[in-house]
Design goal:
By secondary structure, the protein is α+β, with helices and mostly antiparallel strands. 20% of the residues lie in helices and 25% in strands.
């Protein structure tokens, strides 16, 4: 295909590369494990459990955030910031929180009786990367992640003791590819299609779990894929990297 081997975190993105993940000793290392646990004894860190932020406190004149309101155990509380407030509530809750705090489309906020601090199109750039699977091939080599073969003493001990082996796989994804269709300029290094190459398929667990995650009904699975149950397979998942459609998040 003419594509080069790349580093997913490198300067150029067009090409094929090994999958990378945030891993420690063969297991997924979450943000909490990587950062919060080592810092949990610090005097300047306090984590409030069961606390739900409902509003960012913003000075209407300077438009500077100075704290947050949150609910904990049914009680409305406030905490003030000495330096800054960092909004990190995710793709859906971040725009929701901003709008509840007075930052968003004026007309929409006014409909909910929210005083407008800044008229901005918050929530108007919602997008998703649509993907399609089903490109599955039978292979002759015994290289697939088949559930019934993975559950054995050797692989379990290899994972538990050394953090190694097939149980450390990123869901079976071996390689990623960022490639161009006829709608993308190859010279721009801005690919529009992603390819996930998986050492397995929807059938690698005999149709018990994976196909349900992908929304495939029992009838459809049995009609199309039942013959591939627990077979050595290789699959591709194609993903749209630059969708043109945009959604809107509203209160």
């Amino acid at each position: 295909m003419g594509y080069e081997a790349r580093d997913i975190n490198g300067e150029h993105q067009t090409g094929f590369m090994f999958a990378q993940g945030t891993i420690r000793h063969g297991s997924r290392c979450s943000t909490a494990k990587a950062f919060l646990r080592p810092a949990k004894s610090r005097k300047n860190l306090h984590v409030a459990l069961e606390a739900h932020v409902t509003k960012i406190l913003i000075d209407s004149s300077s438009k500077r955030a100075y704290g947050v309101e949150f609910v904990r155990n049914g009680e409305m509380l406030r905490v003030l910031a000495k330096k800054e407030v960092i909004v990190s509530a995710g793709a859906v809750n971040s725009p929701q929180l901003l709008m509840l705090s007075g930052i968003g489309p004026r007309e929409h906020l006014s409909q909910h009786g929210i005083s407008v601090i800044q008229d901005l199109k918050v929530g108007h750039n919602l997008q998703d990367h649509i993907g399609v699977t089903g490109f599955t091939f039978i292979v002759n080599q015994d290289i697939s992640y088949i559930e019934s073969k993975l559950y054995n003493v050797y692989d379990a001990l290899n994972y538990l003791i050394y953090g190694n082996g097939p149980l450390t796989s990123f869901g079976g994804v071996e390689t990623l590819g960022f490639i161009n269709t006829t709608y993308a300029k190859a010279t721009d290094d801005f690919p529009d299609i992603g390819v996930l190459l998986v050492a397995g398929s929807l059938c690698s667990d005999g149709g018990r779990k994976i196909r349900r995650v992908h929304g495939l009904t029992t009838e459809s699975y049995e009609a199309m894929l039942n013959e591939l149950n627990n077979a050595n397979t290789w699959s591709m998942l194609l993903m749209l990297l630059r969708p043109k459609s945009r959604g809107v998040i509203k209160l």
